[in-house]
Amino acid sequence: MRIVVASVSIASVGMLAAACAGAASRTDVRSTPSRTTTSPVPATTPAPTSGGSWLRLSPQEGLRNATVKLDVACLDDLGAVRSPVLDVAALQPDPNGHQPWHLFGTATVRPDAPLGAFPVSATCGTQQLTATFTVVPHP
Predict the structure, then answer these.
(1) How far apart are CA 96 and CA 46, in angstroms?
(2) Rounded distance, CA 130 to CA 115, Å?
């Protein structure tokens, strides 16, 4: 009789183990789309390479007295940013000291600036950086 009880116990444990294993494999994991959206994280601006210096304006056109953002990259000696229609404030590096060759600033369109497209320039070592700003009429 002991043999029968032992075999029934072993058989019961085996079925229980099989049932547990089967339940784990039948688990249905469903994913639901996220309702939140994330905007892409802007990549850091790479270091300029040879010929990779720049002078960028944002916006590239505007009314008299408007503020213009400047974005300048230069690995060499940077000269002053000059324009016949913009009063350019001092450029500033990142306050945390990151990318010291990448400078930012603002300029104001002169109140007496004539309408039209005008050069904005700076020297970076021996390289001339240029952009164009257009003064537009008040609508």
Answers:
(1) 17
(2) 19
Residue 11 domain flag: no
* C-alpha pair distances (Å), 126 with each of 53, 77, 113, 122: 11, 9, 29, 10
pLDDT given for residue 45 in this prediction: 42
**6: in domain:** no
State both tokens at 110: 């002169």
pTM of the model: 0.63
The string of pLDDT tens digits covering residues 21-67 is 454 444 444 444 434 333 343 334 444 444 589 999 999 999 999 99
Longest Cα–Cα distance in the chain: 112
Both ends of the chain: CA-CA distance in Å?
A: 104
DSSP string over 74-86: -SS-B---B-SSE
Residue 29 inside a domain? The answer is: no
pLDDT, position 94: 87
> Could you list the residue range(s) of the whole structural domain that residue 71 is in?
54-135
> What whole-number distance in Å separates Cα of residue 58 and Cα of residue 42?
17
Average pLDDT in the 122-131 region? 96
